[in-house]
Write a structure and sequence with these properties.
Number of domains: 3
Radius of gyration: 23 Å
Largest sheet: 4 strands, mixed
Distance between the termini: 43 Å
Shape: flat
Number of helices: 17
Structural class: alpha/beta
Number of strands: 14
Strand content: 5-15%
Helix content: 25-40%
Length: 413
């Protein structure tokens, strides 16, 4: 395996997950991307012999690594000692956690009519077997209740869908994290927050469900911060990132219905998302005015969506949504209008970035004049729009990793 020295922990995890712990790993000094060709060649030259030796030597016999399964582990009874013990093993997220005792896990499992040893998903990069029991143990640590478990299970299954590209989301230097959007009756029954401070603190269901997914991805999937998870900065959504759509305040159909489910279905949608960026517009009284502000906020040069595509998310506050629909506009009308306006002229991009983007997406960037506009998504249908939040003339723009698609799953409630 070949990579940079900053990614050695990830490389080791990958070869172990593939059952080849003896596979040679050859590294060059980080970084390799975004440097002049001459500098890259200077880094490559000294490792040629190591690469040839690795390719022609007989690696150690493959030994398939067994994924850790949920089970009894001796842990301190004292809560303070338990927190330190958890962090020493890389199983915590830095916040206090509930010890997942046998009794607590059994109580959590009562929230789902599924066999404890049933594998809900294989989670990368470790290729960990996410059994229902293992997910339940992480839900206990997160402070979740048994009635939250069906949402967590559906979210775990959703992120494992190949189109979500969990391998990249778990290990990239980009600050993305799975955002869970819950629709349907279960959101009300669980008391999920869809209104004021929807992305903030104060609601157990939102916090615990989001945290349970994150702990499962870390402890079963093996994306430990600073090791396999290579995020340059990260973001608060890496603790917990979960909301409900404010369906009662929306002038349009909810996300779940838009995707073919019924209003009686409960669903969770996962998106590989950055943190939310506020959109302030206290003056617009027409749909066109809201579109102008939203598009101006979304059209940024540093967004992955500009060159990788994907599905950027617009979370309209109820007041902005009401204005956007005031002239009879549908959600599709709003999406198309934003997509038409949210564009970055190539003249605003550095030449080096245009050269790189032309390699990734030649149709949009190769041999294009400076005035060529780069849209925030490849197609207007890729722009996601939901309604959430409370009173106030604010909305939110959330770029995504780009090379990821959102996935919606029905919750077995």
């Amino acid at each position: 395996m070949l990579g940079t020295d900053e990614f050695i922990p990830l490389a080791r995890a990958q070869v172990a997950a593939q059952g080849l712990p003896g596979l040679p790993i050859v590294t060059v000094p980080h970084p390799i991307g975004g440097i002049p060709a001459g500098a890259a060649a200077a880094k490559a030259g000294p490792i040629v012999e190591s690469v040839l030796r690795a390719l022609t030597s007989d690696p150690a016999a493959a030994v398939h690594a067994a994924s850790a399964a949920a089970g009894d582990v001796e842990a301190p009874d004292d809560l303070d000692h338990f927190q330190a013990w958890l962090m020493e093993r890389g199983w915590g997220d830095g916040l206090p956690a509930i010890p997942p005792t046998r009794e607590r896990v059994a109580a959590m499992l009562a929230g789902a009519r599924r066999r404890p040893h049933e594998v809900a998903a294989l989670l990368v990069p470790r290729l960990g077997r996410a059994t229902v029991e293992a997910i339940a143990a992480n839900a206990v640590m997160a402070g979740a209740l048994p009635e939250h478990l069906p949402v967590v299970l559906a979210a775990v299954e959703a992120v494992a869908d190949p189109s979500f590209n969990l391998q990249a989301v778990q290990t990239t230097t980009h600050p993305c994290s799975p955002l869970c959007i819950v629709n349907g009756p279960i959101a009300g029954r669980l008391g999920m927050n869809a209104a004021g401070n929807v992305f903030g603190q104060g609601t157990r269901a939102n916090a615990a469900i989001g945290r349970a997914l994150r702990l499962t991805l870390q402890n079963v999937g093996g994306a430990r911060p600073g090791k396999e998870d290579r995020a340059t900065h990260g973001q608060p959504g890496k603790y917990a990132y979960c909301i409900a759509e404010n369906e009662g305040a929306s002038p349009w159909e909810p996300l779940s219905v838009e995707r073919g489910f019924t209003e009686g279905d409960s669903t969770v949608t996962v998106c590989g998302s950055e943190g939310p960026h506020n959109i302030n517009d206290h003056g617009s009284t027409t749909p066109e005015g809201i579109v102008t502000t939203v598009a101006g906020t979304a059209a940024i040069t540093g967004s992955n969506n500009i060159y990788l595509g994907g599905e950027p998310l617009i979370v309209l506050g109820p007041e902005h949504a009401a204005t956007a629909a005031s002239s009879g506009w549908s959600k599709e009308d709003f999406k198309r209008a934003v997509w038409d306006r949210a564009r970055v002229p190539l003249a605003r991009l550095a030449p080096e970035n245009i050269e790189r983007f032309a390699t990734i997406y030649p149709e949009g960037f190769r041999d294009r004049p400076p005035e060529t506009p780069a849209p925030i998504a490849r197609d207007w249908r890729d722009v996601m729009v939901i309604v959430a939040g409370g009173a106030g003339k604010h909305s939110v723009f959330i770029p995504t990793f780009g090379s990821t698609r959102s996935v919606t799953r029905r919750i077995a409630d």
